[in-house]
Amino acid sequence: MKRSLLSQCLLSALVVGAAAQPVYAHSQDPQKPNVLVIVMDDLGTGQLDFAIDSLDKNELSKRPVAARYQGDLDKMIDAAQRAMPNVSKLAATGVKMTNAFVAHPVCGPSRAGILTGRYPASFGIYSNDDSFNGIPLDVKLLPALFQENGYATANIGKYHNARVNKDRKIGRITKPDDVKTRDYHDNFSSVPDKGYFPTDRGFDHSYSYFVSGAALWNSPALWRNDKPIEAPGY
Predict the structure, then answer these.
(1) What is the pTM of this model?
(2) Where is the Sulfatase N-terminal domain positioned along the sequence (predicted)?
(3) CA dihedral (102, 76, 74, 66) positive or negative
(4) Which of 3, 93, 124, 130 is 20 to 30 A from residue 68's alpha carbon, by CA?
(5) What is the C-alpha separation between 67 and 63, in angstroms, rounded?
């Protein structure tokens, strides 16, 4: 029987490898399998060829769409599916959970639910804005549990669960025009408060940004562990 797991929602990835060893395709210890959690941001049903039958194109055509995103629906769905062949492969060789639910319908609280195994409202995260308050430090996160059980852990991509202040910027960024590279994402290089970096919460390694969205081209928002890094190009 084909088995695997297709996770929900991306852009961020939680990677846990056995003990202090590098992450391999197959765990060196059968009792400690490697675990990869992929959280995909703004995932559309049209990007999943195995779920295409659930799309009602007539209903979709009635929805208001910003001018920048308008186009031929069939061509856009085709392009979306071609862009994600590995997701289709996971579904084809694994188990599809077609009746799954998350703790919240928006990014930050949903991620907080995954990281804690709790309803995000139970510790005050009701919205993406609340996510900037961070998950309380007395709440243990999933990666910390992995560490306690002999795993090496890493967070790659969007974190969005640290307490940050958008007004705090690192030295090379001095004015609003410098901190925004797209009209949709507030590409701030925000600085998490002490104790709220991913490496403070159970991750051995982190390559992340902490706001709700950031353009990755010449981004001022990327951090490696607890240090901001220059990121020319992609």
Answers:
(1) 0.72
(2) 33-190
(3) positive
(4) 130
(5) 12
Q: What are phi and psi of 137, to 5 degrees?
A: -70, -20
| Digit-coded pLDDT (tens) for 64-93 | 877 777 888 888 878 877 777 888 888 888
Strand order in the sheet with 227-228: 35-39, 12-18, 151-158, 205-209, 223-224, 227-228
**What is the dihedral sign for C-alpha 29, 33, 36, 37?**
negative
Q: Specify the number of domains making up the chain.
A: 1
**Residue type for 65, please?**
V
Tokens of 234: 């992609």
Please say whether the dihedral angle defined by the alpha carbons of residues 109, 111, 115 and 117, taken in this order, is positive or negative: positive
The helix/strand/coil state of 116 is helix
Domain that holds residue 33: 1-234
Measured CA to CA, the distance from residue 201 to residue 233 in angstroms comes to 29
What is the DSSP code string of 3-30? Answer: --BPPP---EEEEEEETTSPP-SS-SST
